Amino acid sequence: SCNPSEKLDLDAWKKVMRSGVQDEVSETVSERKELSTLAAAREVLEMWRLAGRSVPENISEEQLKTFMECPSKSAKKKYLKYLHLKELHKKNNKRKMDEKRQRRLETEEQASKTDETKRNSFIRLWASCMDRTYGWRAAQSMIFGQPLVFDMSYEKDMSVREVANTVRQIVLSEGCNRRSVDPFHIHFCNLKGDSLYHKEFIKHYREAWGKLLITVTDQCYTDVFPKDKLIYLTADSPKVMKTFDHDKIYIVGSMVDRSIKTGVSLARAKRLGLETAALPLEKYLLWNTGAKNLTLDQMMHILLSLKDTGDWKTALEFVPKRKYCGFISKP
Amino acid sequence: SVQPPEKPLQAEEWNRLRESFRSPEIFEEVMFNSMVRCNSPIDVAKSLLTHVAKSKGDIAYNLLVKYLALCVQQGQTSEIRDMYDIMKIRFRIFDSGAYNLLIRGLSNSDQWRMALTLLEEVKKVMIPSRTNYESCIKAASRHQEMNLAFELYHEMLAKDLVPTLDVLQAFFDFSRGMKGAELQKELFGILLYLRENQIYPHKTFMRSIKLWFESIPGGNWRGHLTNIKDSGQCPVCNHQLEDSNLTEEEYNNLRERIIRDVIHGTDTFRKTSPQEFEAFQTFVENRLPFDIVIDGLNVSHIKPRKMQCENLFDAVNCLAKENARLLVLGRKHMLINSSNWKRGIMKEMQNKADFFFAENISEDDAFLLYATLRSGKHCKFVTRDFLRDHKACLADSLTRHLFRKWQRGHQIVFSPSVEGKHINFLPAFCYDCVVQTTGDTWHIPYKDTFEEKYSYRVPRRWLCIQQK
């Protein structure tokens, strides 16, 4: 149906691609010096990005070095994907924040138009008021509360990212403990001043680190508490926990285990001759998939709930839903 | 997704298609993907590229690569060369995907030497992939440049890249009928590589090896397919295969590694406890040497319908022939009278074999390995476990190979027909199942199928090659 005058020139794109850039290139070639390894890596990454792979748009010098130190190709790929997703999340959050601000401005504008003054018997000070209440409760717990120990001796069993994840989970745990009605008295034991854990904590808490209402010590829990009161919680324990004991001191290992290292925390408890226990997951839940080890904040939720109610069913609601199909009706 | 058109389209027609597509911003990408999938004629792709170039003044890198993929898929050599020139104008280096495509495309053409140049280019920015080397090696050997091919092969080995069986096979295929002592040495080298790494060739690879041997001018090699007797004798040439024993040095080496890496590992408490391990050591030292060490718990599950202690009892009776000294490893819970563990039967067994009961939370496999290795080279062990997790604890591949070799020669497994009344055991191999040579004979075990389902399964079929 094409008439000859508008016949397609199928190689026209080659002319476009070849034209215009020729002299520019010859210039850069002559100017180019030997590229540093970092710059070369940056260049390779840019090509990956152009090819449509999961690569972050911006990458810092430090990240680039981490990237180059990855031991294998797949490790490199994984690291880049991780950075890429992080970047995407950041961007999305920023967009959402902007939209929110926009909306708030609009509503404020409307409110000022209607010019309606509201009467209220409370001054709006919710956040700081709540903080003070929580602080009061946490202070109480430091005097009268049941201790809960986080064992910070797993640094050498973890990668840098696992340590970061661990600290994040502990920060979440501490937060939910603080907000609970009857908080635990949290102990960070075996926490050394120059450790990676410590560095990550400072990163999260900044100045608040010094003001936290918890006990931090480089001593072992066996030096702080009587041995017969301690129970080490680990998924590898052959003993299953029946009830929550208000007179015992439970220890949670501060470890994220992405590569499978079975029995690490059980070995620690065995070495110190401590009693161990595992949550009765099998007894109450129809297990579906996933490992039986839970995140530290899930553990905290479960323990808090057990302490308050003593009811396994309410407590085990905090096990992620994807891991089990349902509750066993008659345990 | 979209169906690519069958004929090249005009600009307006592309525009129309693009607007009817639900997300126009990725229209070109999706369209190119489906062109690659449907293997569309390249003229259609060209017309889209022209449209993009004219409307945007430039073509994005990923589109160029996708077009390149289409060209490589169809073996359009001149187009691939053009693409290389065009991309080189815009970009100083490429991503590995583009390099892969260019090398693959060019190595299959008469311009295969270009692929070698590209390989050099890749080396400047990254370590080439093993498929890059594979393409180049195959291209070189296809053109009878065996020296070059072997040079590349050694280069990739030096970079710790693992060659595919395909590339190794190519060496044999393309060397067929060629003369030269140097070449022969290289190919023997590949066979020794198979030996070192305990790789078994598959059937078609084995045939290539056989044909190559038989084609060596003046070599007088003859190959036969055969099954080796249980005694380790080859029925074709009557040659006795290497036995599965480790040398004194290898054996000591392996024993130390097992104790260090498997039993103690990073923490002795993970698998046992220092007290328990010491108690076990003393126990073993006082009763050495054993002939067979049995994983009691594992054996007790052979027949699920039977009581566990009965299974163990049968196994012990079956193995306790000719005054063999047996050691059974168990756990403490076996001593408690229960429905599965009758005290009377346990007592009776303890007259026929030594028993060691570990803590219920200890791992008895580690004890199994220790007791067997401590008893000496003649000692065998019984378990259905493949011990893969223990092999994985060993630090380096050399020790892992030693472990596999030792395992092949010392593990007694149940015969597959356990439906019968009696428990039967397959003896451990007395010969080593690995590529081997005496200079004028070669024996090469091979797999029947290409796919290797179980890496621990040892092939039963052999290629026997002898020089007349």
From TrEMBL, chain A:
Residues of the SAM-dependent MTase TRM10-type domain: 134-326
EC number(s) reported in the record: 2.1.1.218, 2.1.1.221
UniProt subcellular location: Mitochondrion
GO CC field: mitochondrion; nucleoplasm
Superkingdom field: Eukaryota
InterPro entries assigned: MT_TRM10-typ, MT_TRM10-typ_sf, Trm10_C_MTase_dom, tRNA_m1G_MeTrfase_euk
Major site of localization recorded for this protein: mitochondrion
Keywords from the UniProt entry: Coiled coil, Methyltransferase, Mitochondrion, S-adenosyl-L-methionine, Transferase, Transit peptide, tRNA processing
Catalytic activity: an adenosine in mRNA + S-adenosyl-L-methionine = an N(1)-methyladenosine in mRNA + S-adenosyl-L-homocysteine + H(+); guanosine(9) in tRNA + S-adenosyl-L-methionine = N(1)-methylguanosine(9) in tRNA + S-adenosyl-L-homocysteine + H(+); adenosine(9) in tRNA + S-adenosyl-L-methionine = N(1)-methyladenosine(9) in tRNA + S-adenosyl-L-homocysteine + H(+)
GO aspect biological process, one term: mitochondrial tRNA 5'-end processing
UniProt biased composition (Basic and acidic residues): 95-113
Stretch list, region Disordered: 91-113
Single GO molecular function: tRNA binding
The protein's name: tRNA methyltransferase 10 homolog C
TrEMBL record, chain B:
PPR repeats: 95-129
Cofactor (UniProt): Mg(2+)
Catalytic activity: Endonucleolytic cleavage of RNA, removing 5'-extranucleotides from tRNA precursor
GO biological process, one term: mitochondrial tRNA 5'-end processing
Keyword Metal-binding part of the UniProt annotation: yes
Protein name: Mitochondrial ribonuclease P catalytic subunit
Domain called PRORP: residue spans: 228-464
Gene Ontology molecular-function annotations: metal ion binding; ribonuclease P activity
Keywords, ordered alphabetically: Hydrolase, Magnesium, Metal-binding, Mitochondrion, Nuclease, Transit peptide, tRNA processing, Zinc
Keyword presence, tRNA processing: yes
Family according to the record: Belongs to the PPR family. P subfamily.
CDD domains: PIN_PRORP (cd18718)
A Pfam family it matches: PRORP
EC number per UniProt: 3.1.26.5
One GO location term (cellular component): mitochondrial ribonuclease P complex
Chief location bin: mitochondrion
Subcellular location: Mitochondrion
Organism name: Pygoscelis adeliae
